[in-house]
UniProtKB/TrEMBL annotation:
UniProt entry keywords in alphabetical sequence: Glycosidase, Hydrolase, Signal
Family: Belongs to the glycosyl hydrolase 3 family.
Name of the protein this chain belongs to: beta-N-acetylhexosaminidase
Keyword Hydrolase: yes
UniProt keyword annotation of Repeat present: no
Amino acid composition bias (Low complexity), ranges on this chain: 36-52
EC category name: hydrolase
Catalytic activity: Hydrolysis of terminal non-reducing N-acetyl-D-hexosamine residues in N-acetyl-beta-D-hexosaminides
Organism: Micromonospora luteifusca
Entry's Gene Ontology molecular function annotations: beta-N-acetylhexosaminidase activity
Signal sequence bounds: 1-26
Domain Glycoside hydrolase family 3 N-terminal: 103-414
Known EC number: 3.2.1.52
Length: 575
């Protein structure tokens, strides 16, 4: 599915909206304010849905919204608490500091929010620096939370367009919901498998489960090409070859959006072209514009052509295009390049505005700058009230053109109406055998041998060891090996050693017969084991696939999607 027809209708709808005047107030604001033509607004209420395509419905709804409603629709903050209306005292304190409210539902009501992001992190999460809280525990809790959030949003003037509820469900090291769902192997594992059909099927299964829980925006797939040994991107990328990464990104987008969840290509213009971490500082892209075009942007173009509804702008300084300005705030990159050159007409979403490169400005000024650059949604502002008030003041003062805000809101509402047309799966679909089989097939195709014979059982019995902190993964592999008929001993067996995210040469075992890289495979360059394998992921599916290879029941047919010094992409040839 291409989004090119949608691009045209959004542009037409936006033009129509800009010719329409009038606005309406809202019951929780002090007094009605003049609308864009000087008319006074009356109390706001949810508008009646308009028949027609999503862009036309968005255009009609935008024409009814007050200034306050328009501003709220471009905000997508996080909130504290695992329920929409009942939260702990600590979560109340967090919400008060963030937005001057007690609960997530209160935040939606006060600021007429267009969306909310569900956050959380795990131990091996390179994004944990800006995850201030956690909203997710298990699928039932997430479903109840999203139901409550939508109920609060349904009472807004923009209520006919469903609330956007997003999360970072990339699979691999950045996975918010992990229990009770089908967990895919990492993007790098999909790159190693090299089959976009497997990727599409797995992402369709995973997207169905997200939709069933009430999540309709996934901040995935990562479209960054791994041109450097970036630890913040790493196995979140589909690989170092832009063309190969592009076909994988296209498959992920198609699978996810066919399930009713908006895909978000990130992090434009390409975080994998710097090894620095934007959660700590402003990474600099020193490459020429031509190099970025050929080496960083093909996956973004492929995702756009596959119909991706959203693109995330990155806190990245592309020196060849707009030196010194983070892409999040760069009109040249977001409007001239992303929209003009690459032809994207969907929703552009900022990366977290609570990250250091965005906090060089106060929340209100940062939000205005981001919107003027070409973003349509402001994600994770560090202060919701200040961002909201800053946008409203800029709108009324003229530094935020009304046409720009209306354009942004029209895009957001169009995406909402598009998503509303797709029925969500039921909760009973979570972790079904069919979904797990899709994840298993992708993980099995990813297993790569970089040294040693192509296939063949490891001589048993086996002893599984690992770097520290991986007891759960060792237990998963042990169970999978046992199920595959391999005897596992606590000590004294043939050593299979596991290393993963963040591990280096010091975490290797000199006595291991087999060393397995469960994240990026670069560490294998220092391993002395006669057999080197890579799964690129520590998921249950990946450990099951690894066990099948070690038991001699499956051939390791993957190819490393990144170059490892001194090692081939595979010892299994090209067949």
């Amino acid at each position: 599915m291409s989004n090119r027809p949608w691009r045209a209708c959004v542009a037409a709808a936006t033009l129509t909206v800009l010719l329409v005047s009038g606005c309406s107030g809202a019951p929780d604001r002090p007094a009605p304010t003049p609308g864009p033509t000087g008319t006074s607004a009356g109390p706001s209420a949810p508008a009646t849905p308009v028949a027609g395509d999503p862009a036309a419905r968005a255009a009609a709804l935008v024409a009814t919204l007050s200034d306050e409603d328009l501003v709220g629709q471009v905000l997508m903050p996080y909130a504290y608490g695992d329920s929409a209306t009942k939260v702990s005292a600590g979560s109340v304190a967090g919400n008060q500091a963030l937005a001057g409210v007690d609960t997530p539902a209160d935040m939606i009501a006060k600021y007429r929010l267009g969306g909310l992001i569900l956050v959380g992190f795990s131990a091996d999460d390179p994004t944990k620096g800006n995850q201030e809280t956690t909203n997710v525990d298990n699928p039932k809790q997430v479903h109840e939370l999203t139901t409550g959030l939508r109920a609060a949003a349904g009472r807004l003037a923009a209520g006919p367009a469903p609330l956007l509820i997003g999360t970072d469900q990339e699979y691999g090291v950045v996975t918010r919901v992990t229990d009770g769902v089908t967990v895919l192997p990492s993007a790098l594992a999909a790159g190693a498998a090299g089959d976009p059909k497997l990727t599409e099927a797995a992402w369709h299964a995973a997207g169905s489960e997200l939709a069933a829980m009430g999540i309709n925006v996934d901040f995935a797939p990562v479209a960054d090409v791994l041109a450097t040994r970036s630890t913040v991107i790493g196995s979140r990328s589909y690989g170092a070859d832009p063309k190969q990464a592009a076909v994988q990104v296209g498959g992920a987008v198609r699978g996810l959006q066919a399930a009713g969840v908006a895909a978000t290509l990130k992090h434009f213009p390409g975080h994998g072209h710097s090894a620095d971490d934007s959660h700590q500082d402003l990474p600099v892209l020193t490459q020429s514009a031509a190099t970025l075009q050929s080496g960083a942007w093909p996956p973004f173009t492929a995702g756009i052509d596959a119909g991706a509804m959203a693109v995330m702008s990155g806190h990245l300084d592309a020196r060849a295009i707009d030196p010194g300005t983070p892409a999040t705030f760069s009109h040249k990159l977001l409007t001239d390049v992303l929209r003009g050159q690459l032809g994207f007409k969907g929703v552009v979403i900022t990366d977290g505005m609570n990250m250091p490169p965005a906090k060089r400005w106060a929340p209100g000024e940062a939000a205005v700058r981001a919107l003027n650059a070409g973003n349509d949604l402001i994600l994770m502002t560090p202060n919701v009230g200040q961002a909201y008030d800053g946008l409203l003041a800029a709108l009324r003062g003229g530094s935020l053109p009304r046409t720009r805000l209306v354009e942004a809101v029209t895009r957001v509402l169009t995406m909402k109406f598009r998503l509303a047309e797709l029925p969500a799966a039921q909760m009973s679909t979570l972790a079904t055998p069919e979904h797990r089989a899709a994840a298993d097939a992708l993980a099995a195709a990813a297993v790569t041998v970089l040294r040693g014979a192509c296939g063949g059982a490891v001589r048993g019995p086996v002893t599984v060891t690992s770097s520290s902190g991986r007891d759960g993964t060792r237990a998963t592999l042990t169970a999978a090996l046992t199920a595959a008929g391999v005897q596992v001993k606590a000590s004294g067996g043939t050593i299979v050693h596991l290393v993963g995210y963040g591990d280096g040469a010091k975490d290797l075992s000199p006595d291991a017969a087999v060393t397995v890289a469960m994240d990026t495979p670069y560490v294998l360059a220092d391993a002395k084991s006669p057999t080197l394998l890579a799964t690129y992921s520590s998921s249950r599916a990946s450990m099951t696939a690894l066990a099948a290879v070690l038991a001699g029941k499956a051939r390791p047919g993957g190819r490393s999607p990144v170059a490892v010094p001194g090692l081939p992409a595979t010892t299994c040839g090209t067949s």
